[in-house]
Amino acid sequence: MKTKEPDQVAILGRRLIKYKIISLIASAIVVLAFFVLMTGQGTDLHSAFSTRGSTMELLMWAGIIDLASMYRLSQLSRRRIILSRVRFFSSV
To answer: What are phi and psi of 70, to 5 degrees?
Structure first.
């Protein structure tokens, strides 16, 4: 009897959604940090933006997380395309 394996394309789709959410949050922090650096209204938003140094540190870490998640997104989407092509040609 054949066991049912989980659909690899669906698993990759869920991972893609997870990394898209992480990238969205990191991008929002980057935008907020740039806004605070340009306007100087950091204490109005949050105490983490109170000094220029802490704002730069948040900008740096959010940028690193955003770049890492975008890199992982590109790998996963490439793998998803390959799996969907293999799946299409194996069903024909």
So the answer is: -65, -35
